[in-house]
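So, can you check this record?

>
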Amino acid sequence: MRILLIVFLITSFGGRIIAQDNCPQPRVQVSNDIDYYDQQNRSPIEHYEISLNTAVANTIISLNRGSIRFFSSFTAAVPIGEMDYFLTVKSKAIENGVRISMDLVDNNNRVVLNYQSTVNDSLWVENIIDIANVKARDVSPLVQKIETHQYDVRNGSEAAISSKFELEKRSYQVKVNEKKKIKFVLKDCDDEILPGRTVVLELEGKEKIDKTTCTVDENGVGEFTYTAPKDNGKATVTLAHKYESVSGLDNRISVDAVEFITSGKLWLLVNHVTDRAEIYIVGEHIGGLEMKWDDSNTRGGSVASFSADDDHELWSTSLVGFIEMDVLPAGKEIWTANESWFPGPTTIKARQLGGYEFEIIWPLEDGSTMPVRGTITYEKPRLFDQARSKYLAAKRGS
């Protein structure tokens, strides 16, 4: 039965640092193969072998402070399934001395370090501490092979130490119906490019993206295009890279996200049919609770101020909320506009018909009213511009 000996350690050695500053510290579990609990059946010499194993391991810990973490099975801080490497210390008494070996392997049982040394000292039992000091100092620099192992595995496979996404921005303001191309770079934690890897893209929110997976090129660059919806809202595209770690741990995943906030100018189009012509009236949101009205038969316009009824106080604070008409029941009055087209202020009322359609109760000069239909949109309606062009052309022809 293995006995795991050692507690936390953050380790560095001379020369290059084992893990770069932004990379996670390799986690190493240290153990020996002697059954610690088999007290009755263990010989006196085995007691000394265990003592030497423990002394070597503890001395390694005392010598190193830096970028490796050593763990014992007696701590629950990190489950065994999350360990990156396993270091086994073995001591075996021989004639006139002791043989010490240390093996360091990863989760795929790939050998990172195999150290063996023979101490020809018939008094080794009495010199355990001195021997441990010497052997620990011999092994400590060799554990730096973890770094070389990580680079070799990554360069020969699609493994990574701990991948990350490099993004220019993580939040964008986009216009309605706008197409926004986003580029990103997939790198490892030490800023090395990870070429040819697959990234999964997932959209949460309105409208669409042009792909759900992306393979980055030889420079680690990938891209996708987000198409904004026709109305205001928020959406998030999540980027995920699934990989095996260089130490052999599978199902590793790196996640990042890009947020899109869609906003656009609010337009209202009213189709006003008279006995003489079909007139389009357009309202343009100019800020706050004010709309500028214009019609297709003139070049002029006027400003209307909006308010909501008592049932919809939310719409009295912002026209951005006003356009969320699909949440309102049909038949509800949704706004009034104090209009100055006619002599004196005139109140125009509108009610929801469903979706983005509404009905305006339009006052006439003789005191009567006429209902006309309207539509909410985030783009200036083409029908209005077409009608304006026809009207101006006809006027010039006359």
In short: The CA atoms of residues 24 and 162 lie 7 Å apart. Residues 44-63 form the longest helix (20 residues). The radius of gyration is 37 Å.
